[in-house]
Amino acid sequence: QVQFVESGGGLVQAGGSLRLSCAASGSTFRSNTIGWYRQAPGKQRELVARIGVYGMTIYADSVKGRFTISRDNAANTAYLQMDSLKPEDTAVYYCNAPFAISPWGQGTQVTVSS
């Protein structure tokens, strides 16, 4: 039962960068895979990136080479570094533990202008 609080979103021009943070509560963070998801208006929520217990990562094809997921277990925090942002990256971004019972947080808005 982990709770998540996302932060770091904002408005940025195309080609710019943002770093999102995901602060988690609970004692099981270290043993959980963590994923970043996003949902654009009128669209289904989709997986953006995922990082496993041993640091193995998976990225959506649309963000490969531009986004980097990481985690700091001591701080119970996951990150998403987003570079070379495009307007199509505009969405509300969420983090979660896909293999645990985890409620969704509020998300953080990312808006990329042309």
Descriptive report:
By secondary structure, this protein is an all-beta fold. The protein has no helices and ten strands. Strands 2-10-9-4-5-6 form a six-stranded mixed beta sheet, with no helix packed on it. A hairpin with a 5-residue loop joins strand 5 and strand 6. The radius of gyration is 13 Å and the shape is globular. The N and C termini lie far apart (39 Å). The model has no long low-confidence stretch (mean pLDDT 94).
Defining traits:
114 residues, mainly beta, globular
Q: Which sequence of SSEs, written as H and E, runs from N to C?
A: EEEEEEEEEE
Strand order of the largest sheet: 2-10-9-4-5-6
**How helical, in percent, are the residues?**
under 10%
Euclidean distance between termini CA atoms: 39 Å
What is the tally of helical segments? 0
Q: Taking all residues together, what is the mean pLDDT?
A: 94
Mass-distribution shape: globular
Q: What is the beta-strand fraction?
A: over 45%
Strands, count = 10
Unreliable residue stretches: none
Radius of gyration: 13 Å
Largest sheet: 6 strands, mixed
Pairing-aware structural class of the strands and helices? mainly beta
